[in-house]
Amino acid sequence: MTEMSDGFYHADACDLADFAQQVLQPLQSGMVPQASDVQGNVPIYDMDALRAALDRPEARRRLMAEWARVLKDGAGVLVLRRAYADTSVLDAATAIYDQIIAREKAAQGTAADHFAAGSNDRIWNALQKLCEVDPETFVRYFANPVIDAACAAWLGPNYQMTAQVNVVHPGGAAQQAHRDYHLGFQTAEVSAEYPAHVHDLSPLMTLQGGIAHGDTPVESGPTKLLPFSQRYRPGYAAWRRKDFRAFFEDHYVQLPLQKGDALFFNPALFHAAGANSSEGIHRMVNLLQVSSAFGRAMETIDRVKMCTLVFAPMKRLVATAQLGGAAFDAALAATAEGYSFPTNLDRDPPAGGLAPQSQKALLKEAVLGDWDGGHLRARLEDQEVRRHV
Ligand SMILES: [Fe+2]
Fold this sequence. Notes:
Number of domains: 2
Helix content: 25-40%
Shape: globular
CATH superfamily of the largest domain: q2cbj1_9rhob like domain
Largest sheet: 8 strands, mixed
Bound molecules: fe (ii) ion
Number of strands: 11
CATH class of the largest domain: Mainly Beta
Order of helices and strands: HEEHHEHEHHHEHHEEHHEEEEHHHH
Distance between the termini: 46 Å
Number of helices: 15
Structural class: alpha+beta
CATH topology of the largest domain: Jelly Rolls
């Protein structure tokens, strides 16, 4: 069996030799003519030299087209040196983020990091929180044509910006190798339910970025990256495998960043935050997760209302064996929100798994369980409150 003989990827059919063949290739310098340097197969763009090109439509497009090629078929990752020419706005934001972390720690304990144990700090929805604390600093922070061009290069216009601050303290643990949202946030079982072509689609829907808020030498644990690993199509089925993770640990690259540098990568790239073995560097990176405008339906639907309305007839039909199995699942799929995102990760945390319970899972639990309509309505409303800002 190949990894997708039936149109789906299977972890046990992934082949490390195929993966190695994709990954162990040198970056052809002809692919990145506008890069100023290549380190560890990662192209580096000197934005001091290229910033003016972003004001000229043709030059901007040429640069964006090169970045898109790098992200899709090339290294899968690029560094934008001095994405921020003036880093004073980063210092202002850092001070605010430090305050937010202190306030949230006092209020609720440390937010969970998905892929690492230890003492890392995380601010969910750092985008809105910065805007709420200091709208002017927020405006100055995101008034950055370099960041905008990188997002538009991968996603086109009208992208949806989100940001999560991550601070790794000295002694902070490394993450395990993984891929990112969307499919990277699903369990192996759920991920395997999506057909192979959706595994190709998933990385086109988001862009991962990071803005260095301070100098980040290698000992402070900048992100470990495996260039070209996004090219391995079954990678969402493979990244949990021990042999793939061991290969990652043998072959990753880590690049030092300076304050004001930005890093962008294809969310299908195998990567992991590094361990912070420095003496006193509290490594702060603002992780940008940017989504395609297209990741939405055309109509807004009041699915809470629909779930409440269908509950009694569904329960009656299931109890009388007129509804069950695949037909029941089809009715659930048309009624309820089946996806856990977007959500408010402060209130609806990913504890115990990667994705919080979906509305569809809640409705199914209600119909099959010993719930009454009032209890379902309360749980649906509670879920809505948790999901929204
Ligand atoms: Fe990640």
